[in-house]
């Protein structure tokens, strides 16, 4: 069937947008760049029989560290019918350039590599909502991690948002990558649950970030 216009304020449109932003945040985010939704400009939904629901989105994103800098993008998010197990298919096209983070990335990399003891931190942001400047890159890498979890685990009926880094510890490695083991709290905006996830993020200035391990802890832990 043809794609149908949705009001951008419509909940299914906002939930699909969260998936697209999570996916892009995972691909293009890092210790010196976080991307968040500024505005959902347009949304359409197409019901593809026996396949699922496909959302076509036009978004404006902003750079968390430089709110005046925005970038437009288009996205397609396909939620498969019935199968809980498969992540939505996402394609995102960014119009224009994202701010270069090369210098900041290198600085962060060198700083962490030169630490005598592995970095350990908890409760970012703290109860007042503050993130100490030296932990901002660690917080932004948690955004990358939450982007991955959001992309891989969202359905049409969920909307995940990073609430807090409960705990993070750096793990020394024999290769060039930095490794951070996180416990992050994700706020599920539909059910209002806060869910803990264990996520391991590997990062290198040339290769970017990737999640090597990720599991839901369940509310009990």
Automatic annotation (TrEMBL):
One of the record's GO molecular function terms: metalloendopeptidase inhibitor activity
Coiled coil: none
GO CC, alphabetical: extracellular space
Keywords noted in UniProt: Protease inhibitor, Repeat
Domain Cystatin LXN-type positions: 2-103, 120-221
Stated family: Belongs to the protease inhibitor I47 (latexin) family.
Keyword Acyltransferase: no
Species this protein is from: Dicaeum eximium
Classification via InterPro entries: CYSTATIN_LXN, Cystatin_sf, Latexin
Protein name as catalogued: LXN protein
Domain of life: Eukaryota
Keyword Nucleotide-binding: no
């Amino acid at each position: 069937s043809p794609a149908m216009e949705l009001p951008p304020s419509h909940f299914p449109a906002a939930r699909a947008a969260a998936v697209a932003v999570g996916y892009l945040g995972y691909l293009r985010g890092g210790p010196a760049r976080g991307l968040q939704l500024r505005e959902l400009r347009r949304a359409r939904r197409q019901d593809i029989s026996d396949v699922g629901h496909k959302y076509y989105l036009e978004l404006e994103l902003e750079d968390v560290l430089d709110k005046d800098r925005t970038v437009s993008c288009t996205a397609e998010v396909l939620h498969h019918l019935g199968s809980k197990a498969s992540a939505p298919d996402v394609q995102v096209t960014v119009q224009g350039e994202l701010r270069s983070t090369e210098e900041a990335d290198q600085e962060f990399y060198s700083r962490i590599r030169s630490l005598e003891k592995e970095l350990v931190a908890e409760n970012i942001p703290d109860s007042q909502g503050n993130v100490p400047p030296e932990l901002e890159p660690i917080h932004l890498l948690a955004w990358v991690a939450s982007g991955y979890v959001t992309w891989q685990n969202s359905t049409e009926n969920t909307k995940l948002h990073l609430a807090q880094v409960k705990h993070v510890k750096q793990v020394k490695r024999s290769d060039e990558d930095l490794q951070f083991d996180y416990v992050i709290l994700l706020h599920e905006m539909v059910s209002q649950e806060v869910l803990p996830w264990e996520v391991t993020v590997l990062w290198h200035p040339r290769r970017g970030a990737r999640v090597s391990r990720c599991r839901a802890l369940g509310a009990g832990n």
